[in-house]
Amino acid sequence: MTGQVDSESCALVLQGGGALGAYQAGVFEALMESRHMPGWVAGISIGAVNAALIAGNPPDKRIAALRAFWDKASSRVPFPSPFADGWGRRLFNEASAATIALTGIPGFFTPRLCAPWLEQPGSPQAISLYDTAPLRATLEELVDFDLLNDGPVRFSVGAVNVLTGNFVYFDNRDRRIGPEHIMASGALPPGFPPVMIDGEPYWDGGIVSNTPLQQVLDQRGTDPLLVFQVDLFSARGMMPRSLAEATQREKDIRYSSRTRMNTDMNKRIEALEAAAQRLFAKLPPEFADDPDLALLKAYRSQGPVTILHLINRGEDYESQGKDYEFSRMTVEGHWQAGREDVLRSFASPRWKKRERPTRGIVTLDLA
């Protein structure tokens, strides 16, 4: 069921995906230019970093903060490839990814000097390959944590408890957020060490769920909500032709499938609720005081949701190391792709003529 579009609150949902996260920065830049200002940003891993740069800065400084982070992250390989695509570009990207793996990323992480098996068992040095102290310094430089915690934008990031395996969200509506919460959301093992929060160790939330969409759907209110769901891995792809392509395809499926599952599950719940409401009207009067019926009637779904799904489709020359290929040329390409997908979606007749649902969830994939 749909009705005319009027005011909607906006949420920005950002997947994890390392270097691919520059796509999200381009998406956000285009959203800002079109005056779609999110009142809620939720992220996992690199999505948590981008979310912090957005929520932790005033509107007029958000793009500059994103640009500062991504310029620093891509400064290790600042020169362009002599090849725009094809095998030459693939070799350049693979060499760039290898460089990052060996030398780290400025303002993000540095390789440990000693082999992990020579370190004290149980220490951060023994269970990870890189030191993420530079990321803390970068976050403290680029994010105003007072604004992030006390400002108007809701902020949520996901991580997984190493000891229990339980997935948790750190939300500025119920706790003070610091650099450690963002770092925990992006602490992907075995590269990065777990981050201690309140005496508990946490790893990257993408281990359990690479998208925070479910948090937004579960915690939304009754008002209409427009969600910009920004995925860095595409669920659809070609049949692999080599072991390297098989590895890449497996990674795409593993990190993309949660979005589809979440939206499908919520649509089923909405359909069941609608069927239950219709059934209530058909029951005889003697069921009016039945406690089970009262319990079912008390359940009400939240407000209607429109999800604009923006997916980084990737390029043919990308390899299995695309999520840690931080060359300047590739980062700029991801950023531009995000911008173009937003503009393409907004130019679609389906977007221009869309009507806001009065209940349930509507998903649009227009790029």
Automatic annotation (TrEMBL):
- Name any Gene Ontology BP term: lipid catabolic process
Species, as recorded: Novosphingobium olei
Annotated motif GXGXXG, positions? 16-21
* PNPLA domain residues: 12-217
Spell out the molecular function terms from Gene Ontology. hydrolase activity
**Gene3D superfamilies xref list:** Cytosolic phospholipase A2 catalytic domain
* Active-site residues annotated for this sequence: S45 (nucleophile), D204 (proton acceptor)
Xref: PROSITE patterns: PNPLA
From the record, which residues define motif DGA/G? 204-206
Write out the entry's keywords from A to Z: Hydrolase, Lipid degradation, Lipid metabolism
Q: What's the protein here called?
A: Patatin-like phospholipase family protein
Superkingdom in the source lineage: Bacteria
Q: Where is this motif: GXSXG?
A: 43-47
